[in-house]
Amino acid sequence: MKSGTHIQPHWVSKSLAGIIAGGLLSFAFVGLIVWFGPDGLKGTLTNSELLWKTQFNMWIIAPVWLVILSLTFLFKTGKQAWGYLLLASAVCFSMQAVLRSAL
What is the pTM of this model? Predict the structure, then answer.
């Protein structure tokens, strides 16, 4: 088996990618759900519904971030992890910008 097909350890770069780029991706992903999920931010919500929704969105970032961080170690190299996570973050933030301008 070729050595290039194995998952390389690169634990420092993968960990940093999961923490930094994974954090960006989790904020971007939850932002998409907040803006374009049920009721959005422009929906007619009561004060208690708005408080519940705000708290839920704030607390769901950590589990999403942890899932991304744990999956980061499945990339073959640290460079690949940085590339894919930053690309996914850019796509999510771009989708937010485009969809928010369209609404």
Answer: 0.82
